[in-house]
Amino acid sequence: TGTLFEAETGSMSSGGTFDSNHTGFTGSGFANPANAAGSYLDIPVTADSAGTKTLTFRYSDGTSSARPATISVNGTSHGTLNFPVTSDWNTWSTATISVPLTAGANTIRVTGTVADGPANIDSVTVS
Ligand code: GCU
Fold it and tell me: Please, is 92 exposed, middle or buried when counting C-beta atoms within 10 Å of its C-beta (0-12, 13-18, 19+)?
């Protein structure tokens, strides 16, 4: 359960594109953040109450190297989440982290820590 927010409702740092050239995504596509350390994706989410929530990112990384990223909420970092490789770019996996959200609107930022930048991100579910 939980509430799903599509990555394509968000925005990215320079060089990121919303793509649909791989299969298996939900919604109209997925976020392909720029291949650079520090490149990021912002996804707006809402929470019906304040408190610790689980974020489940649906992502793909068809390379041979993981794409760890820091996860920030409303500008505060809550640590680094690993995004391990998937079999190919058409295969989607999930990575989860618990973070505090405020009631109402929140911005989740996924910032790549390696030179390849973040993985392709399809959605985040808040539960
Ligand atoms: C490929 C793939 C993209 C992906 C990129 C990357 O170009 O088609 O969807 O984002 O690799 O390495 O990040």
Answer: buried
Ligand 1 centroid to 44 CA: how many Å? 23
How many whole angstroms from 110 Cα to the centroid of ligand 1? 16
Whose tokens are 């392709």? That residue is 120
Q: Are the CB atoms for 118 and 69 separated by under 8 Å?
A: yes
Assessment of whether the complete model's pTM goes beyond 0.95: yes
The pairing of beta strand 30-32 with beta strand 93-101: unpaired
Question: What is the rounded CA–CA span in Å between residue 26 and residue 7?
Answer: 10
Q: How far apart are CA 59 and CA 105, in angstroms?
A: 23
**Residue listed under structure tokens 């520090």:** 38
CB 73 within 8 A of CB 106: yes
Where does ligand 1 bind, in terms of residues with CB under 6 Å?
19, 22, 32, 35, 63, 89, 116, 120
Name the stretches of the chain with pLDDT < 70.
none
Spatial neighbors of 36 by CB under 8 A, at least 6 apart, are 15, 112, 115, 117
